[in-house]
Amino acid sequence: MKYKSQKVAYWFFALSMLLFVLQLVYGFIMGFAHAGFDGLHEIIPFHTAKAVHLNLLVVWLLSGFMGAAYYIIPEEAQHELVSVKLAYVQLISLALVGVAAIIGFHFNIWEGRKFLEIPRGLDYLVVVNVLLFLGIILGTLYKGKRRTTTALVLTMGLFFAALLYLPGMLPFDSQVMDSFFRWWVVHLWVEGVWELIMGGILSFLLIKLTGVDREVIEKWLYVIVGLTFLSGILGTGHHYYYIGVNKIWLIVGGIFSALEPLAFLAMALFAVNMYRKGEKKHPNKIALFWTLGSAIVAFVGAGLLGFAHTLPQTNLYTHGTLVTAMHGHLAFWGAYAMIVLAIISYALPNLTGRKLYDGARGRAAFWMSNIGMVGMTVAFGVAGVAQVYLERIMKMEFMEVQKMIEIHFMVLIICAILFTTGIILYIIDFVKYGQPTDEALEINNQ
Amino acid sequence: MLSKKQARAFFLGGTVVTFLVFIGLTVYSLSEAQDQTNYENLTEQVVRGKNLWDKNNCMGCHTLLGEGGYYAPELTKVIDRRGKGYIKAVLMSPVPWAPNGRKMVAYGFTPEEAEDLISFFDWIDDIDLNGFETVISPLAKDKN
Predict the structure, then answer these.
(1) How far apart are CA A346 and CA A338, in angstroms?
(2) Residue A390 to residue A382: CA distance in whole angstroms
(3) How many alpha carbons lie under 13 Å from residue A231 in its C-beta half-sphere?
(4) What is the ipTM score, two decimals?
C-alpha cells in the first residue's frame, strides 16, 4: 500500500508545528503578565495575547487533524486523495486565514467572544476552506475501495466540527443568547465531535502499532464515541448553570457532565488494553508513547479535572476563576495536542524514510513536555483554588487576590520552560526527519 | 459479548436520543415564559454597549457572567460595587487605568460610549443567575 498523495499531510503537520511554537510565545507573554511583568502591554496587551494563544491552539490542532485525515484516509480507503493540488490550495488558504486573523488581533480587529475571536469576514473564508477540505476527504472516501469504521468516525468528527462552526456565526443582541450558542461551538467541539476525531486517529494508530484485529478495535471505538455523545451533548448544560438560563440545566448538566469522564476512562482503558493484547512489536516506540500517553492524560486532564469542578455546587464557586484554566490546559494537551503529536510521530518515518524513533531526544521530548504540563496544571490549580477561597469565600477584592497569587505564576513559568524545552526537542526531531519522498512511501508503508 | 453491530446501534441510538432531548431543552429554556434576562429591557443603548463590549474584546481580560479572561475583575454587578461615576472615569481615561499595577488598555471612550457600556452592565445586573450573583466577590459582601 503506497499512496503518494499522503505527502500533503507533511505540510499540514509542518504548519501545525510552526503555529504551536508561536502559541507558546504568547502563552509566556500572558504568564509573565499574570506574574506582574507586563512590559509588552503597549504592543501586545493581555487580551491580544489571549486571543492569539487560543486561536493559534485551535488552528494548529485543526491543521494537525487535517494532516491526520490526509494521511489516514488514503490508507483506510485504499485510494489516493482525489486532488492533491486542491489540498495544497486548502493548506495555503488555511495558513493565510490563520495569519490574517492573528495579525488583525493586534489591531483591535476581532469579535470579543472567547475562542471565536476571528472576525465575521474571515469566518466565511474558514467555511469555504473547510468545505474544500471536506470535499477532498469525502470524494476520496466515495471513490475508495473500502469504507472502514475508523475512516467513518474520523470523517464524521471533521464533518460535524465544520457544521458546528455555524451556530457561532449567528448574531444576537442578548449577551446570554450569544453565550448560549457560543458553547454550541466550543463545548460541542471539544467535548463532542473532536473526541470523534481523536477516537478515529487513536483507532488508526492502535491498529497500526499493536496489530490487534481491526474488528475488535473498531467495535470499542463505537462504544467510546457512543459514551462521548451520550454524556457530552447534554453535558453542555454545565456551561449554562450561571449565565442566565433556566435552572433545569443545573440538573441535566450536573448529571450528564458527571458522566463525561466515562468516555475518557473508556478511551484510556481501551488504548492500554489493546497495547497489552497486541502481539506486534512495532519498532516506532515513540509513536506508541504519544498514543497511550494521549489517552491516559486525556482521562486525567479532561475527565478527572473536568469532573473536579463540573458539579453545580462546586462550579458555583469556581465558575470564572483560574480553576478553569487548570482543567483547560491538561485537557487540551492530553486529548488533542498529544494525539496530533502521536500521529506525526507515526507518520514522519513513513513519509520521509528516516527512522529517528529510537533516539533519546524523542523520549526526552515526551517526558519533559508532559512533566512540564503537569507542573503548569498544578500551578494553575493552586492559584485557582487560592483565588476561589480568598475571593469567593473571604470576599477579598479581585486585584488584592491577584497580587497574592502572583508567585504561583512564577512556578507556572518555570514549568512552562520545561514544557517548551520538550516541545523544542520534538520540533528538532521533526526538522531532522527532512521532507517526504515518494521512494520512502513506497518502501515504508506496510 | 457485545457485537460490532450492537456497539454501532448504541452509538447511533444514544446520540440521536440525547441530541433530541438537548434540542427540546434548548427550546424550553429559551422560550419567552422561561426568560430570566428581562429581555424586554434590552434597549438600543444596551445593544450598542454590547457591541462595544464585543468590538474591543473586553472578555479577553475581564469576565462577565463568569466567562472571559480571568485577568481583570468580574463585571457582573459592577455598578453595585463601584457606582456609575467610577466606571465612567475608567472607561474614558486617556491613560491606562492600573489598580494594583495591572494595566487596562486606555480606551478613552466618549461620554456616549461610556453611557452605552454602563447601560449594558445595568441590563446584565438584572439577570437572574441562579445564585451566582451571591458569590461573586465582593459585591455580595453586604447582602448575605
Answers:
(1) 12
(2) 12
(3) 25
(4) 0.95
Burial (Cβ within 10 Å: 0-12, 13-18, ≥19) of residue A424: middle
Q: For residue A338, how many other CB atoms are within 10 A of its CB?
A: 26
State the DSSP H helix or E strand holding residue B68, giving kind and residue range, or none if neither.
strand B67-68
Say how far apart CA A301 and CA A296 lie, in whole Å.
9
Residues in chain B: 144
Residues of A in contact with B70 (CB under 8 A): 320-322, 324-325
What is the Cβ-side half-sphere exposure of residue A249, based on CA atoms within 13 angstroms?
Answer: 28
Q: Give the pLDDT score at A2.
A: 78
Question: Nearest-CA residue of chain B relative to A196?
Answer: B11
Average model confidence (pLDDT) across chain A: 95
Q: What would you report as the CA-atom Rg of chain B, rounded to the nearest whole angstrom?
A: 21
- Strand, coil or helix: what is A445? coil
Flag if B66 and A242 touch (Cβ within 8 Å).
yes
pLDDT at B127 over 70: yes
Q: What is the mean pLDDT of residues A122-133?
A: 94
- Mean pLDDT, residues A280-298 taken together: 95
Tell me the residue type at A78: Q
For the cut 60, the answer to whether the pLDDT of residue A198 exceeds it is yes
Considering only the beta carbons, identify the residue of A215, A230, A316 that sits closest to B132: A316
Q: Reduced to 3 states, what is the DSSP secondary structure of residue B144?
A: coil
A349 contacts A355 by C-beta, under 8 angstroms: yes
**Range with the lowest mean pLDDT among A274-278, A405-409, B85-89?**
A274-278
Alpha carbons within 13 angstroms on the beta-carbon side of residue B8 total 11
| CATH value of B38-134 in 1.10.760.10, 3.40.50.2020, 3.30.70.20, 3.20.20.30 | 1.10.760.10
Nearest chain B Cα distance for residue A284, angstroms: 29
Nearest to A236 by CA among B118, B21, B59: B21
| Tens digit of each residue's pLDDT (9 = 90 or more) over A384-422 | 999 999 999 999 999 999 999 999 999 999 999 999 999
Interatomic CA distance for residues B89 and A115, integer angstroms: 30
Closest CA in chain B for residue A256:
B18
Cis upstream peptide for A436 (omega within 30°): no
Nearest to A236 by CA among A188, A284, A281: A188
Phi/psi at A150 (5° precision): -60, -50
Strand partners, B67: B64
